[in-house]
Design goal:
The structure holds 2 protein chains of 2 kinds. Chain A is of the alpha/beta class. In chain A, 31% of the residues lie in helices and 26% in strands. In chain A, strand 7, helix 6 (171-186) and strand 8 form a beta-alpha-beta unit. The model of chain A is unreliable at 243-247 (pLDDT under 50). Chain B has helices at residues 2-26, 30-39, 41-51, 56-79, 84-106, 114-119, 140-158, 160-168, 170-175, 180-202, 204-221, 225-250, 254-272, 278-292; strands at residues 129-132, 135-139. A two-stranded antiparallel ribbon of chain B has the order 1-2. In chain B, a hairpin with a 2-residue loop joins strand 1 (129-132) and strand 2 (135-139). In chain B, helix 4 (56-79) packs antiparallel against helix 5 (84-106) and helix 12 crosses helix 13. The longest helix of chain B is centred in the last third of the chain and has 26 residues, at 225-250. The radius of gyration of chain B is 20 Å and the shape is globular. The model of chain B has no long low-confidence stretch (mean pLDDT 87). Classes of the chains: A alpha/beta, B mainly alpha. At the A-B interface, helix 3 of A face helix 8, helix 9 and helix 12 of B.
Chain lengths: 251, 293
């Protein structure tokens, strides 16, 4: 590993003076699928938003492939939580996906044919071409999540941040999404995913970050995703059924 | 000719307000438009007291400054834990009250008519004319509100993608490096400017009404933001036409009739919109019931 895809040093973020993410430092190698795991209120979303400078940080240094975050903006893709936007907004699926290109267009250029074509390709990748002209409020939760994913693909980024992309989607969509993430990884992209469902961690992610205000552990999933560290992260609130094959966990 | 000028001023006010109103609707911020249109009053009065004239330019500047102050204060209160609708209510009523106190304190010395500021009458606009280079150039209101409309249209056209993304998904916009706060305040400045530019000639009722009702009507009739803006302009112009003629028939307040016409059009859209309308939803439900039974 010559250069980390993402390097975070001493990141601290606070809401109303209460630290939510405390002095976090870690590095993520290129071409990995990384799950960010931790109990509610552990600061998983906050960590992502802090890295993307969506919320002010108290301290911390972010570098993407050795350069500052600001200079690398165009190589970053972001999928916010699905409920963070108003799905009654007057727009259609294709238009939302085209928004993924806005960052590449500069101040005055308007999206045109090239953007439309790229957006259609991305819709195709998530199996939503036939819904291109559908008003977004008429899509199901899973379809909306696919649209968000297509929009992220349209960003043509090298490193992706996804906030709970599997929440409220049907099994078919979850499968489709994870397949896409694997594809991205295959192309050498780095994908960080805030994830809730502990039962799928081993199956989905090659790296895992255990977060509870601080980074408790980060590394290859088989080394990190073990009962001892999980107990530490979740503060002993997990009942571990060690006899199941995936080490299924219950709260 | 007077008919024409009044309808034109009404249509210009309606169009420039509805363009901005569309963004207020999709951002669920219609109350802010209402708030700004009230809280600019102290700005107008202060500008008047400082310059001593009822010239439009200082008044526009004073009003725009107060509009921005309103938005800033609302955000300040919201971010420190005051409920968002309470924050809006507190800020605009106190600023409006401050304005009224200022007016009542100082206007004995100077000729300043509160009635006029609040209920500026569109019926008088044809007589308040302007001359450019010695040639009569028509009512002043046409020029002031007209330039406002052009400014709004140019900025919205140029930065349409930014305004849209900032409204739909501000966090993605911020992640892409689009200055979300800048566009927020730009929109709010345009609203303050438009409000005051229209205030002076047509009164606050018409402004507040046109800021919200045509956009809300267009929201029911369109599924794209760009189309929603065009429809809202159409609804605005139509309201000013219907409003003017119904006011002549009824011999009633023109501004009042224009806003009532807008409300009437909203009512029609609410009932009969093909996608959102009550009637079409009822028919659809009955149809699906029949096909199931």
């Amino acid at each position: 590993m010559d250069q980390a895809a993402l390097k975070v040093e001493n990141l601290t973020i606070a809401y109303h003076k209460k630290p939510v993410v405390e002095d976090v430092s870690f590095e993520v190698p290129e071409g990995n699928l990384i799950g960010i795991i931790g109990p509610n209120g552990a600061g998983k979303s906050t960590l992502i938003k802090g890295i993307l400078e969506l919320i002010p940080k108290i301290s911390g240094e972010i570098t993407i492939k050795g350069s500052t975050y600001k200079s690398m903006r165009k190589s970053i893709g972001y999928v916010p939580q699905r409920e963070s936007v108003d799905w009654d907004f007057p727009t259609n699926a294709l238009d939302v996906v085209m928004m993924g290109r806005y960052g590449h267009l500069g101040w005055l250029k308007r999206p045109g044919k090239a953007e439309r074509q790229k957006a259609m390709e991305c819709l195709d990748k998530v199996g939503m071409v036939e819904y291109a002209n559908r008003q977004i409020s008429q899509l199901s939760g899973g379809q909306q999540q696919r649209i968000f994913l297509a929009r992220a693909l349209a960003q043509e980024a090298d490193i992706y941040f996804m906030d709970e992309p599997f929440v409220g989607v049907d099994a078919a969509t979850e499968k489709a999404i994870i397949q896409l993430l694997m594809e991205l990884k295959g192309k050498g992209k780095t994908v960080l995913v805030v994830h809730h469902d502990l039962s799928t961690v081993k199956e989905y992610f090659d790296w895992t970050m255990l977060l509870n205000k601080k980074v408790m552990k980060i590394g290859p999933t088989e080394e990190v995703f073990i009962p001892e560290y999980l107990q530490e992260t979740y503060g002993g609130r997990l009942a571990i059924l060690s006899d199941t094959k995936s080490g299924l966990l219950l709260k | 000719m007077n008919d024409f000028w009044i309808i034109l001023v009404g249509a210009l006010v309606a169009s420039s307000c509805s363009v901005l109103g569309c963004f207020l609707i999709v951002r669920k911020m219609t109350l802010i438009g209402d708030a700004i249109s009230h809280s600019v009053l102290p700005g107008i009065v202060l500008a008047f007291l400082i310059t001593g004239t009822r010239d439009s330019v200082p008044m526009l500047i004073g009003a725009a400054a107060l509009g921005l102050l309103t938005v800033f204060l609302i955000q300040l209160f919201q971010s420190s834990g005051v409920q968002s609708d309470a924050a809006i209510g507190i800020v605009f009523t106190s600023l409006f009250a401050t304005g009224i106190v200022l007016v009542s304190l100082y206007t004995q010395q100077i000729d300043f008519d509160l009635e006029h500021v609040l209920y500026g009458e569109i019926a008088y606009t044809p007589w308040n004319t302007m001359t450019i280079g010695g040639i009569g150039a028509g009512p002043k209101a046409v020029w002031i509100v007209g330039s406002c409309l052009i400014l709004n249209l140019i900025l919205i056209f140029l930065f349409f993608k930014q305004f849209k993304l900032v409204s739909f998904d501000p966090s993605l916009a911020a992640a892409m490096g689009i200055p979300v706060l800048f566009f927020h305040y730009l929109l709010m400045s345009l609203i303050s400017l438009t409000t005051v530019a229209s205030f002076d000639s047509v009164g606050s009722i018409l402004v507040v009404g046109m800021l919200i009702i045509p956009a809300a009507t267009a929201y029911l009739l369109s599924d794209r933001l760009s189309r929603m803006i065009l429809v809202s302009i159409g609804v605005g112009i139509l309201s000013s036409l219907i409003g003017y003629y119904s006011a002549t028939v009824l011999d009633a307040s023109i501004s009042g009739c224009m806003v009532s016409s807008a409300a009437l059009l909203f009512g029609l859209a609410f009932l009969f919109s093909p996608s959102h309308g009550l009637v079409s939803r009822f028919l659809k439900r009955r149809k699906s019931k029949e096909s199931h039974s």
